[in-house]
Amino acid sequence: GIFDEDALKLARAFWPGPLTLVVPKRPQSTICDLATAGLDTVALRVPAGPVMRFLAEKCSLPLAAPSANISGKVSTTTADAVTIDLGASLSFVVDAGPCSVGIESTIVALVDGTPRLLRPGGVPRKDLEAVLGRGLIDASTPAKPDTPQAPGMLSSHYAPSAAVRLNALAVKEGEALLAFGPHKLPGADGAVCEINLSPSGDLEEAAARLFAALRSLDTSGAETICVQTIPKEGLGEAINDRIERAAAPRPNTPS
């Protein structure tokens, strides 16, 4: 990939870590077009976890690998969840423990001199902007909503089987509750199931627990998961992004 000054700043500050950089692909690059969807850009990351870094070191090559979950469904953050989703097609699973961040990487595009936030994630916007010394531009909505510019950008994504109701002020009969913070919603005692992402209101804890909580609530038998309001600052931007996509109308279903 071709790294401009901004890309170098971000790579030095946040790699290894949950940051993916989309940069121009070198004309002489030997990366397979299948790994870049035929585009003239490439998405690169140096993960903090030990397994992929060990494999890359031993191969002495960049590695391309998809996320270990069914596309569009709730992401996996534990080996058990991977086995539930993909068990029939797996030969083995490397269990390095639960994901420490819990949500996917932040994706920033650096292809035209203007840093663009394609997907909020494990590195908060304010930290990126502090290193760049200027603001990130939000990616424009693709002309075709079902043609994302980066992973996790479909309007409906991270979707449990149950419906998801956002910014709940009270829990309705028969609902499961995804709670946040110390203040209990009216009707919470009657919820089919309740998981509080962080009783203390810690956004890092909430991010780490998000997908496992959605999966657990989805097995409760409730037809709807109601979600308590979560602040949008820091990692809250990425948490809300995932929950809003989980709540979006699903393909081939009425809006």
Give the structural class: alpha/beta
Instruction: Round the Cα radius of gyration to an integer and report it.
Output: 19 Å
Q: Label the overall shape.
A: globular
Question: How would you spell out the order of helices and strands?
Answer: HEEHHEEHEEEEHEH
Please work out how many helical segments DSSP would assign.
6
Using the coordinates shown, work out and report the CATH topology of the largest domain.
Answer: DHBP synthase
- What's the name of the CATH homologous superfamily of the largest domain? DHBP synthase
Q: Quaternary state, please? A: single chain
What's the CATH C level of the largest domain?
Alpha Beta
Largest sheet: 5 strands, mixed
Q: What is the CATH architecture assignment of the largest domain?
A: Alpha-Beta Complex
Q: Termini distance? A: 40 Å
* Mean pLDDT level: 89
Kindly estimate the percentage of residues that lie in beta strands according to DSSP: 5-15%
- How many domains? The number is 2
The strand count comes to: 9
Q: What are the low-pLDDT stretches, counting only 5+ consecutive residues below 50?
A: 141-147
Strand line-up of the largest beta sheet: 2-1-3-4-5
Helix content: 25-40%
